[in-house]
Amino acid sequence: MADYKSRRNTQSQQDVQALEQVQTQSLSAQQVIAVRLTEMSLDALHQRIENECLENPWLEHKPDEDTDDYASEGIGGEENESRSPEENVNDMLGDYRSEEDVPDYLLRAANGSNRPENIEYGDTLSFYDQLKAQVGEYDLSEHEQGVMEYLIGSLDNDGLLKKSLEQLVDEVEIYQGITTDSKELERLLHILWQFDPAGVGARSLQECLLIQIHRLKGNPWQAQMKAVMQDSYDDFIHKRWDRIRRRMKLSEAQAERLQREIMKLNPRPGNALGEKVGQGSPQVTPDYIVETDSYGNISMSLNETGVPTLIISPDAVEKLKGYEMQKGTLSQAAQEDLHFTRNYVEHGQMFINALAMRRESMIRTMRAIIRLQRPFFLEGDESLLRPMKLKDISEISGVSISVVSRVCNSKYVQTNFGTFPLKWFFSHTSHQADGDEVSSRKVMATLRTLVENEDRRAPLSDEQLTQMLRQQGFNIARRTVAKYREQLGLPVARMRKQ
To answer: Which residues does 265 contact at the CB level (< 8 Å), separation at least 6?
Structure first.
């Protein structure tokens, strides 16, 4: 009897260990799927859900569904989600007793091979997409591709890069979780200069034109055009062609021909690709709707238009119950059908739970952003945005930094004041004279006001702007003022003079 009890206890322990192993694998796979769903746009999510329903015979839309959205303040509906996705998975795994029962798709998902399908949005590609499509033409590592794509996403409407490489080093790490440095960015930027149209990625108009001139192999005026850009650029932008002609010892006819050749260059290469940065595909579909009323109440809901609620088919549940009642007497065909049904039911439940995890992560992330940036959502004043990092949102929301990064790098919110990408709400920190932190956006807004109100006959130098900002309490260096001025698209003082 003692031996029997010992063998029975040993077998029970083995069963528990096997169950725990399967559950651990399942949760890992579910988290992988949830992360990938989180990265998807609303359109891509629709397509992924439909694909799952087509591939899984036991996954279907809930009939007569009535989906409620979550609100950011006084959130309703939480009591309806008392069970966690992990608990639901544990229920579905209750009958597994050996590693051989683990479905193949779990192993594929854990290894990262269940990649979401690419979604076609029609013949019209955005500026970003057309440039991104060229990345694969170069031998870049996965890390380099991530940095390159962020570089492309940082271009302005003209296709130029107005941000400094130092700023981009910080942004890539904040938004993408990728560590890089200025040296690597400089190298990848030179690769970007090889993309079409010529001139994209340039940091100034001068650099943009020089990149285009460099590609004019065989053009008899290439050397003279390069000389104008390098040695007479100030005269060129002020249209002092007489001075250029005398300096280069050209005849009037030669100067006119040289001018015509230069005029063929495109100062805004981004326009050559049609749609501009930020416009993306035909229109941006917001992932969140945030509304503010006149009483200062803020409400938030997920845009779940067309997203169905999924359930496991009741027929599958009944089938599994029937097989459970016939344990030990099943034929070979019935056992195979049982295994087949279990696999698809578990896969479907895991996908349902992953959707719930995606929803919860997105809601928590947006709640935290509203909490930190409440003044902006009430007033719409950009200068009211406070310094905010991914870590801040992660700590408030309880969502991991990597997931917060994926949410904030790919989602949009519609507000009373316009539609914004979530990453727009993040900014670097400056300090006031009293030591308090202040958003760089507030400094930039103040800088913009100073320039707008300056005497155009005697525009303010960067040093003067620095002193005026310090008088207003912003503890800021002159080089930072110059960087912010460039980001605002404001030329240097001598170029602003009228």
So the answer is: 199, 209, 212, 213
Place of tokens 């206890």: 9
| Delimiting residues of CATH 1.10.10.60 domain(s) in the chain | 429-496
Give the model's pLDDT for residue 482.
Answer: 84
Find out whether 270 and 127 touch, Cβ atoms under 8 Å. Answer: yes
Residue reference for tokens 């992990």: 86
Rg (alpha carbons) of the chain, rounded to whole number = 30
Q: Which amino acid is at 49?
A: I
pLDDT category of residue 65 using cuts at 50, 70 and 90: low
d(CA 275, CA 129): 10
**Residue 135: which of 182, 194, 178 has the closest Cα?**
194
Measuring CA to CA, which residue among 352, 307, 375 is closest to residue 87?
352
Closest CA to 202 of 160, 148, 157: 160
First vs last C-alpha separation in the chain? 103
Q: Is residue 359 scored above 90 in pLDDT?
A: yes
CATH code given to domain 429-496? 1.10.10.60
Structure tokens that stand for 267 in this block? 């100062």
Task: Report pLDDT for 64.
Answer: 62
Q: Provide the total of helices (H) and of strands (E) in the chain, helices listed first.
A: 22, 9
Mean pLDDT of 267-282: 53
Most confident of 68-72, 301-305, 365-369, 420-424: 365-369
Tokens of 349: 């439940």
Query: What would you measure as the largest C-alpha separation in the chain, in angstroms?
Result: 114
**Side-chain-facing half-sphere of 53: CA atoms under 13 Å:** 15
- Do 309 and 199 touch, CB atoms closer than 8 A? no
Burial (CB count within 10 angstroms: exposed 0-12, middle 13-18, buried 19+), residue 303? middle
Amino acid at 47: Q
Give kind and range of the element (H or E) at residue 307.
Answer: none
Rounded CA-CA distance 257/255 in Å is: 5
Determine how many CB atoms are found less than 10 A away from the CB of residue 100.
8
CB 462 within 8 A of CB 418: no
Name the token pair of 365: 């992330």
Q: Closest by alpha carbon to 343, among 335, 355, 333?
A: 335
DSSP state of 201: T
Report whether pLDDT(111) > 80.
no
- Strands (DSSP E) contained in 223-372 are 288-292, 298-302, 310-312
Residues 6+ apart with CB under 8 A from 33: 109, 114, 350, 351, 354
Report residue 113: phi and psi, to 5°.
-95, -10
Give me the half-sphere count of Cα atoms (radius 13 Å) on the Cβ side of residue 81.
Answer: 15
